[in-house]
Amino acid sequence: MIELYYWPTPNGHKITLFLEETGLDYRIHPVDISAGDQFKPEFLAFSPNNRMPAIIDTAPADGGEPISVFESGAILVYLAEKTGRFMPGDVRGRKTVLEWLFWQVGGLGPMAGQNHHFVQYAPEKLPYAMQRYINETNRLYGVMDKRLAKVPYLGGEEYSIADMASYPWVVPWQRQQQDLDEFPHLKRWFEGIAARPATVRAYEKGQPFSSRPSVTEESKKILFGQTAASVSKG
């Protein structure tokens, strides 16, 4: 059983995409980040960066004690190795998938996240910051489009954890001030993943939590006012 600590954000969706594709047994434990659940001591005990998602594998491959994993990229690698799926076994294929996975966790996610912040949530509109991250998101979409003009998926010929990591960050393309019609190869890839039954199921799993109240002024303080003191509470 995989105990999944989750909220329906792009990083949370990455993990449900994998779990639904593989059919692993899992149970969702909601971590309401707008309410500050990520700062609870019991969560910080295995997710020290006070971020979700995180998992606890109660039946690890070595048969030992449960294993906890935090950080979405690390979770995807762990689960791919556990199941032997969505990660090539050969050294070259594995290298390529890991390149694009790290490209997402180090580039697309952070840049699109800053795009979301300055365009939607910042208390004052800062044109320089907004344009900076809209443009960088656009550049990264271009990188994906160029790659996907050559191969069906980011990692090559087969769907992989690199695609699972990137897809949820393209879902809010309109909020990111992008136009998928400008990126035909990316659009083909995006629509293909959206139509996968496992993708549909993964996003359905987030619906009960997505219907909760939107970000409020109080939740903004929780989400965007964190310092070292926030971590030390746990």
Strand percentage lies at 5-15%
Report how far apart the termini are. Answer: 26 Å
Number of domains: 2
Q: Strand order of the main beta sheet, please?
A: 2-1-3-4
The overall strand count is 4
Corresponding CATH architecture of the largest domain: 3-Layer(aba) Sandwich
Under CATH at level 1, the class of the largest domain stands as Alpha Beta
Structural class: alpha+beta
The DSSP helix count reads 10
Helix content: 55-70%
The helix/strand order is EHEHEEHHHHHHHH
Mean pLDDT: 93
Radius of gyration, whole Å: 18 Å
Family: Belongs to the GST superfamily.
InterPro entries: Glutathione-S-Trfase_C-like, Glutathione-S-Trfase_C_sf, Glutathione_S-Trfase, Glutathione_S-Trfase_N, GST_C, Thioredoxin-like_sf
Domain GST N-terminal: 1-87
Protein name: GST-like protein
Q: Can you describe what's shown?
A:
With 234 residues, the protein is of the alpha+beta class. The protein has two domains: 2-85 and 199-232, 3-Layer(aba) Sandwich (Glutaredoxin), CATH 3.40.30.10; 91-195, Glutathione S-transferase Yfyf (Class Pi), Chain A, domain 2, CATH 1.20.1050.10. 56% of the residues lie in helices and 8% in strands. The chain has ten helices and four strands; from the N terminus they run E-H-E-H-E-E-H-H-H-H-H-H-H-H. The protein has helices at 10-22, 41-44, 72-83, 91-121, 127-148, 161-170, 184-194, 197-210, 217-224, 228-232, and strands at residues 2-6, 26-30, 54-57, 67-70. It has a four-stranded mixed sheet, covered by helices on one side. Helix 1 links the parallel strand 1 and strand 2. Helix 4 (91-121) runs parallel beside helix 6 (161-170) and helix 5 crosses helix 7 (184-194). It starts with a strand and ends with a helix.
